């Protein structure tokens, strides 16, 4: 059995079990807007479990995940969360030992075999790598506070340490 087949099988079997044994009547009645009216933007890194690390229970918050926990990359979902679903607070969480610290756009273009600026322009966007975690958190917060469609009264940024499990407030 290939790794892909094994992952698909685990996914399907786990979902069958979840659907028959885990969802409570209260969970079935949860509303679409998150009860605590906040959003966490964090990295897609498999070492981070936002529910456990940040105390989020089902129905509390929206969790938007992408490479690097980028506010720019999360903007579409964040605007929908705030403008249509009523969230008011945004918490951006980046983390130590993030893969986004390890490359540049040029590195990835080379890996993709991008040969020219013309070909580069066909890609969807900047891959948004960064070299400094603190600076990246601050830049994301500044970006959100400056955006006219983001409710920026309650925006904060943290760095999560993947080794200790602790988060430290940056902004």
Explained architecture:
- By secondary structure, the protein is of the alpha/beta class.
- It is 40% helix and 17% strand.
- The protein has 7 helices and 5 strands.
- The protein has helices spanning 3-21, 25-28, 50-54, 71-85, 105-112, 117-120, 133-146; strands at 38-43, 61-66, 89-95, 154-160, 167-169.
- A 5-stranded mixed sheet has the order 2-1-3-4-5, with helices on one face.
- The longest helix is centred in the first third of the chain and has 19 residues, at 3-21.
- The chain is globular.
- The termini are far apart.
Key phrases:
single chain; globular; 7 helices; alpha/beta; 5-stranded mixed sheet; about 170 residues
Q: What is the tally of helical segments?
A: 7
* Class derived from helix and strand content: alpha/beta
Low-confidence regions: none
Spatial strand sequence of the major β-sheet = 2-1-3-4-5
Overall mean pLDDT stands at 92
Distance between the termini: 47 Å
Strand content: 15-25%
Rg from alpha-carbon coordinates: 18 Å
Largest beta-sheet characterization: 5 strands, mixed
How do the helices and strands follow one another from N- to C-terminus?
A: HHEHEHEHHHEE
Shape: globular
């Amino acid at each position: 059995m290939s790794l892909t087949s094994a992952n698909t099988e685990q996914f399907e079997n786990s979902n069958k079990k979840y659907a028959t044994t885990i969802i409570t009547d209260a969970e079935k009645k949860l509303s679409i807007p998150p009860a605590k009216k906040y959003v966490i933007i964090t990295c897609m890194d498999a070492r981070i479990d936002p529910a456990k690390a940040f105390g989020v229970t089902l129905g509390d918050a929206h969790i938007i995940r992408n490479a690097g926990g980028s506010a720019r990359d999360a903007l579409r979902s964040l605007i929908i969360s705030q403008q249509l679903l009523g969230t008011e607070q945004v918490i951006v969480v980046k983390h130590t030992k993030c893969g986004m610290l390890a490359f540049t756009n040029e590195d990835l273009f080379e890996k993709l075999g991008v040969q020219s600026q013309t070909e580069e322009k066909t890609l969807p966007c900047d891959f948004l790598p960064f070299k400094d975690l603190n600076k990246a958190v601050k830049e994301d917060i500044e970006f959100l506070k400056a955006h006219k469609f983001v409710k920026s009264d309650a925006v904060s940024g943290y760095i999560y340490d993947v080794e200790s499990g602790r988060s430290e407030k940056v902004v």
